[in-house]
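[recover] target loaded
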């Protein structure tokens, strides 16, 4: 089982990034997919989630209207489009897969928002 995140980096406030999480080793299309983030000294936070069919997206209040989660079951990939980034969005962003009997995590990708 692998979840590999990519797309992180350093961006100025107001900028955009698109994160990707490529999955392998399990039946991706049957899993709920989530993006979490963890900033230094803070607890891990659920940022966004999407059902196996790609419906009913969930967003934390802090990112509503700025972030969009989507998935491509044909490519076994989930995305997080992040717009209007703020310094407080700085964190390691982790991909998470939740199935009926198992849960998987990626290693994370660093997002830094700074001028």
């Amino acid at each position: 089982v692998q979840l590999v995140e990519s797309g992180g980096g350093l961006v100025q406030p107001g900028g955009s990034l698109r994160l990707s999480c490529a999955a392998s080793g399990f039946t991706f299309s049957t899993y709920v997919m989530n993006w979490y983030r963890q900033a230094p000294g803070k607890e891990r936070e659920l940022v966004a989630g999407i059902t196996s069919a790609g419906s009913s997206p969930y967003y934390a209040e802090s990112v509503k209207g700025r972030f969009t989660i989507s998935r491509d079951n044909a490519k076994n990939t989930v995305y997080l489009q992040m717009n209007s980034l703020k310094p407080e969005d700085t964190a390691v962003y982790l991909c998470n897969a939740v199935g009926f009997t198992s849960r998987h995590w990626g290693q994370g990708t660093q997002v830094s928002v700074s001028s």
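[recover] notes: The mean pLDDT is 97.
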